[in-house]
Structures are given as structure tokens and as C-alpha cells.
Amino acid sequence: MPFPSPLLLVLDGNSLLHRAYHAYASDPIEDAEGRPVWALRGLVGYVARAAAQLRPDAIIVGFDCSESSARKQDWDGYKAHRPAKAATLSEQIAAAPELLTDAGVSTVVPPAYEADDVLASGAAAARRAGWRSVLMTSDRDAFALIDETTEVLRVRNGGFDEAVLVDAPGLVELCGVEAGQYRDLAALRGDPSDNLHGVRGFGAATAARLLNAFGSVDAAWAAVDRGDLRTVCDVVGEPLATQLCAPEVRERLDRNRRLMRMRSDLPLPDLDSARLPLDYLTMRRALRARGINLGPSLWALVGGNVPPPRAAADDPAPELQPWVFRRSMSSRRDPTPGQLSLF
Hints:
By secondary structure, this protein is of the alpha/beta class. The protein contains 13 helices and eight strands. The chain folds into two domains: 7-177 and 263-275 and 323-342, Rossmann fold; 181-260, DNA polymerase, domain 1, CATH 1.10.150.20.
């Protein structure tokens, strides 16, 4: 039996750090200098648990560029509605890339682009190298990247234990569309967290029905343009079909799809340079400098070469519990509207 292809795990550092910030904000942890570290500790915990369960050959963590945004330059309304982040969140976001780099984790902050673009570029790099990839994020946008070599591990409210591993057949079961259609579905539905408004009346089910009938939004528009509006009406009803073809709606959908498209050609570290195991002492030293003690939990990242703690108080990290790969999202726990600013 042939050995499976190597596995690259690519993590959306921003979305996971936001998750950790929200999850542990009720019990904030600070380092010896009084700096907040609970989200940083949670992010490292996500990386460690994912490595323990997936056993990847290499890991890359991507972060949003905080200095400029190509998408905001494209449309100034992109994410414009988001309130200012709490100071404790901003501080930990700023510290995360340097912390992971110091710990030996391959980390990418692409100029003008986002962690989503690192996910797309990582999946493309893995595919070119004959590897498989798992993209770990709390956002649904990565569903558009799923293919025969790429799966998405989506973390929802409830943390890692509620994460869902979605492959190509699972995406069809979950959303009713294939990965190549997902960006059209997302554009129709809209993404309030990014200030991208969809088309009124087009929820996920209606959008999937349109895409299953025509394959794409462009194909539905082409049917209308050749005088076949009735076919679209038969699928979604006359009011929605008429609305779909309005010039301002076409412009909005084109903008949504353009802004939702993820770059797959960003320069990334060579996959061999991102390979595990990492050096235990280097990682331990970097984490301890920020008051983070996760020694035993790091075993999958450092090849299992983790000395036991000298005493329980020396490293209070709990043992990992077995994780069940959930392929159903029937018990959805998506963010509430009040939490959308975290994502």
C-alpha cells in the first residue's frame, strides 16, 4: 500500500486568535509584565491540538496585514462598519506573528493581504508539491478552496471540540453546492462581517437552488440576457429573478465575488522549511517569555520529545482529550451579530 501524501496544515491566525480571545475573555491571563496573553495562549493551543489530531508534516500560520489592505483600496466600504478593537485584543494580534516566529513556527504576514490569502496560497503550494492540505479557520470563506487534496477544518463556537472537518462531498451535503460554486453562493448570501451585502431574499438555500439549476450566477444572467427570464423565474420566483438582474445587483455581486476571491500566488516559505518537528527548547523559551506554559501539549509539534513538567504547578496545561472528526453541522454555533466584530 503506498504511503499517503505529506500533509500541510495552514492556519488562519487572525480568526483563531479572535476565537480564543472571545472564549477566554471571562478569565483573562496576563504575563509577569501585565500584558494580556490569554488569546495568544489559546492560539498556540489550537496549533498544538490540531497538530496532535491531524499529525501534519508541516505547518504554516497566516495573519492579516495590519498596515495596508488591497481589498480596502479596491472598495473603501470593505469592513468599514467594524468597531475599533479592544486594546487587549489589538495588543495580542500585534504580538502573535512575532511570538510564533520566535517559537519556530513558520509564519506569514503578506503585505496588503489577509490570512485567507495565505490559506489559498498554502493549498496551491501543497497541490503543486504533491501534498495534501488542511486549512484551519473559523471563517466559511475557505470552503471555496476545497478540492480532492484540500479540506477545511472549521472551528466554531465551542472551540476545537466543535470543529468540523469538511471535504468535497461534505461541502455538498453541508451547503448544497460544490466548492467551485461556493463563492457565488457567498456573494448572493452576503457577508455582514465584511460589510458585503448580498441580494435580498437569497439565503443559502435559495442561492444553492439557483446554482444547482444554472451552475453559476453568470449562467443565470446569460439565460436572462438571451431572453429566457422565465427559466430563472421557474427556479427562484419572478420577484427574485427580476431583482437578480437589476444593474445595481449585478454590480454588487461582481464586487462581492471580487473581494471574496483569495489570492493563491503569494510567496510562502518552502514547505520543507515549515516541516515538523520544531525545536522544543526554542518553542518553550519563546512561550515562557510571554508567560505561556504548554509543555506537555506541544508533543505533536516537537516530535514527542517533551520532558515531563517538574511539578503540576510548573505546567498546568491539561491533557488533550480525543477529538471526533465531525462532518455534520446540524448543531450550528455561529457567532451572534454582537460577536461579528471579532471576525
